[in-house]
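Q: Could you fold this chain for me?
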Amino acid sequence: MCSDSLFIVDSASGEEVHVQQPFRVGINGWFRIVGVSNGNICFKFSRVQDDKRLLVWNSATQRSRKISDPHKDHSRSYFSVYGFGHVPKIDAYNIIHVCKRDIADAYFFFSRYCSRHSTWFHCVNCLSGVEKIDHNSVFHNGHAY
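A: Sure. Below is the predicted structure, expressed as structure tokens.
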């Protein structure tokens, strides 16, 4: 199996389908899946250690869109969490980015990318009352869980 391989599992049949990655990562590169929604897969990846990118890919059409990563505007000491989902009312997808400098710090930076507008919308300190954000956090209807 090639290092550029991905397998998509059909949830109804359990069948594994081999697909070619929509990007290549080098020996020092990496990728992770941010989320899957409505046939689209959102990846965060890097070809080299500090070159981070976001990509939304439709495996059926093989079309993809590279999206700037708002985390590049913050130092390495910031902790970031990403979310991804489809918005049926406007037939668009959103990427959510939340970062915090320190667990004890009250400062949050929140960004939302909307595919319909092809832009990031930013907000500071808009998640009042949230004390912990990590990779287990879930965002639904504007709330962090």
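A (continued): The longest strand covers residues 79-87.
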